[in-house]
Amino acid sequence: MLAITRPMSDRFVDALAHAPPAVAIDPALARRQHAAYRAALAALGARVVVLPPDDAHPDACFVEDTAVVIDDLALMTRPGAPSRRGEGAAVATALAPLVGLATMDAPATLDGGDCLRLGRTLYVGRSARTNPAGIARAAEVFAPRGVRVVAVDLAPDVLHLKCVCASLGDDRVLVADGALDPAVFASAAVVRVPADEAYAANAVAIGGGVICADGFPATRAALTRAGFVVHAVPTSEVRKADGSLTCLSILVPTAA
């Protein structure tokens, strides 16, 4: 597994957020936390690629939103926030030697944070950042490869689908209580996160390990009971920018 990442620039203080944080983002602390995240990815066996920080785009550390990778094909997205639409060029350059690239044009918008894959099904949140045309483009690209695309309606206060859930492999999913009807995920086994720890429902699973946000003991216990080796990492600074753990990497299957 290869993980594409990008540390924060000093302009991370200007990242998008639904509300100004009570304590301003600390870019230096954010970079230290990002380094801990990369170390956790490496501990789970991923080969970590680190792109240079992007001073022109404050949100560029959230690489997940720029591409959706399934097997040997990446769909380069058109993010829903206009200020983010220049972030994908460097990501496409990194992906090009590894996978084929498909593109997305206006009026379609799609953020990778709205895309959750379980086996041969890709669930896509219909959100303020991802519109029906973006979902249709995902189906156009991936359905011919045997991937079923299922749209999921989200509550207005949910930024991305994976704010409230995360894949734990092909047949298990982590879901925050009350955020979604678990039946959405058909026959997948659900590992539940208490509603008061909903932020921790976003986690990165690779093999038998999972990276989760530090400071959420019930979620960590649930993941441990589910058989995972848990790596908890600090997330205070990305959370101030409405970010979480899956946002910070694009996982690419590799032979090596």
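The record above closes out task 2.4. Task 2.5 opens with a second protein, given below.
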Amino acid sequence: MKNYAVIGLGNFGHFMARFLAARGLEVIAIDTDEAQIERIKPFVEKAVIADATNKEVLERLGVGDMDAVIVSVGERVDTSILITLYLKELKVRQIIAKAISEDHGKILHIIGATDVVFPERDVAAKIAETLANPNILDTLSLGPDYSVVQLVPPQQFLHKTLRELDIRNRYNVHVIAVKEYVPENIIAVPSPDYTIKDSDVLLVIGKQEDIDALRKLT
């Protein structure tokens, strides 16, 4: 079983620990605040009151053997940097650190974080995208240019086959899967003869500008 440590149990850290544990993963939660530890105890394998800025404490807790460690210590920039540095020295394979600014994120990357997240910014961007583009249900960025999105098919796509629509050549995007809701089913790499229904959702990949052009059809 994979095991994870979550250091810092503010809102982000608390829910990260809970969601990992709910998926059957072994989680150790670490914080200096007794109230936060009591709050997370019912949900995780182990919850410990400890100072993660002490490298010896991290070693005693076996953090160096974890599959990944999530650093979420709120607004304390210097603390998150120090903890990330110690985790790197302990040879933690994957260090996911929460950042509160671009500069903070750059420093975390430089000293050893394998992944840097900006929870507030990322959630705000996702909500804004949903509000601005209600026909797009979810988005996965593949870098600055490409994305994978779940797209409600435009009205003019309904009751036509993928061959008739010729989406790849007309819009420069690829339909890589169709999520059927009536009946509920996933069709990976649908055939050209697949007919789009009003209960379908298309999973498409392409450049963001091409996806945006397709979205405007709705």
